[in-house]
Amino acid sequence: MINTGKNREHWANRAGFILAAAGSAIGLGNIWRFPYMTGEHGGAAFMLLYLLAILLLGYPLIVTEIVLGRASQRDPVGVFKVLAPNTPWWLVGALGVFTGFVILSYYAVVAGWSLAYIYKVVIATSNPGIDHASIFKNHISGVWEPIIWQAVFMIMTVGIIAAGVVKGIQRWSTILMPILFVLLVILIIRAITLPGAEEGLAYYLKPDFSKVTGRTLLAALAQAFFSLSLGMGALITYGSYLNEKDEIPASAAWVAGLDTGVALLAGFALFPAIFALGFKPGAGPGLAFITLPAVFAQMPLGTIFGVLFFFLLGIAALTSAISLLEVVTAWLIDEKGWSRRKAAACMGVVIFIVGLPATLGYSVWKDFSFPGLNTDLLDTYDWFANSLFLPVGGFFMAVFTGYAWGIKHAVHEVNKGHKAFAVGTWWTLLIRYFVPVMIFFILAIGIYDTFVK
Ligand code: PHE
């Protein structure tokens, strides 16, 4: 990033923005959450709904968030104060900041599992016949160990944000993310050549729409939003570090495409292995941590690949976590006049504490379950953040852009800058009608199915 104009940092070039936004998008959502959600919601039908949600709701909203940020040059709360002064619209930004807070609090827990697996995978791959599910269970119920790794991950996140963003991490991710990609491809080759892999491929690729309910629809929408870092202002914040000469529509397409590609690859690495090695697709949040070590155990040099894989997963998680903390930090800097260091450090501590129940939900508080959700605490945080707050945020951003700010104005703003292609009527129709109506409808039947039926 470089400093230009009124003290606001800006991305040094177009690739810088795309890589940072893709770094935010690609993370645990692709490799940890996408497979277990697909597994819990019946496979291929869920995967297809997720793809539709990305294309028809996700992409138009990515463009929306980025342009809101670029046009206002402010944090998610400031956006609405600049574009619609003296109105309650800033509450949409406030919900976003709050959501970033909640997501990061439990994201750090799962990222901590990845860090721990950098060495746990050695045990898992070097003892033939070991029970992979119980290694994972023992780890997450171990109280101190997961808390320490959660803390380590939070300290790394705070350190990067406090230092003034991206220089190091951006350069690092450019080198490391392609390696993660290659590793995924190697994993896929191993997984689909295991005897019995066909059943898993069929599960992943042959949709059975008879199992689709309101819950499934809402889960697919939530997965699309979470994975694209959408609905809480991460992309507003990253967009606010763009200049008017930077183009938006094609960059947004790159981010969506890269993110979706990595998620689909993760599915190809997991589902064949799940069926071939006798695991259950509905195993929940432990799915990747149980299945992937078992695949590594079946590979030559599996231990080395395993260590490398969980290290890279940790890096992918870090480039997402920094975008979550950056939202909260940018808000405190822009709106409250805090220094970057103070904002990052204080929020890091508070977010860590808020995340503790999510860790302890696998040990001391394992009997907790939220009425209607019937899941552990971490999944409860996850449900509220992703199935409720993100879609609500996306809904109001679309309504704001389509009506309050003015769609003509928005189209003009989006199309400023050098561009590979422009948005037009199709985008107008999606943002004004399709996106808000669909989100409203999916939220309504999803919530009805979850709590009332
Ligand atoms: N997209 C990230 C992932 O898939 C998570 C995230 C959500 C990051 C919301 C920022 C904002 O892991």
**Shape summary:** globular
Question: Could you give the order of strands across the largest sheet?
Answer: 1-2
Helix content: over 70%
Number of domains: 1
The CATH top-level class label: Mainly Alpha
Unreliable stretches (pLDDT < 50, length at least 5) are 1-5
Give the termini distance in whole angstroms.
50 Å
Number of distinct helices: 18
Mean pLDDT: 93
Q: Which ions, cofactors or small ligands are bound in this entry?
A: phenylalanine
Helices and strands, in N-to-C order? EEHHHHHHHHHHHHHHHHHH
Query: Biggest β-sheet: count, sense, barrel?
Result: 2 strands, antiparallel
Class by helix and strand content? mainly alpha
How many extended strands?
2
| CATH structural fold name | Amino acid/polyamine transporter I
Rg from alpha-carbon coordinates? 21 Å
Estimate the strand proportion: under 5%
CATH architecture: Up-down Bundle
Write the layout of secondary structure elements.
Elements: E1 2-4, E2 8-10, H1 14-25, H2 28-40, H3 44-72, H4 76-83, H5 90-126, H6 132-140, H7 144-162, H8 167-192, H9 197-205, H10 214-227, H11 234-239, H12 249-276, H13 287-297, H14 302-336, H15 340-360, H16 377-404, H17 407-414, H18 425-452
Antiparallel strand pairs: 1-2
Helix pairs in contact: 1-8, 1-12, 1-14, 2-10, 2-12, 3-4, 3-10, 3-12, 3-16, 3-18, 4-5, 5-7, 5-13, 5-14, 5-15, 5-16, 6-13, 7-14, 7-15, 8-12, 8-14, 9-12, 10-16, 10-18, 12-13, 13-14, 14-15, 15-16, 16-18
The structure holds phenylalanine.
Phenylalanine (PHE) is lined by residues 24-25, 27-30, 103, 226-227, 229, 232, 234, 320, 323-324.
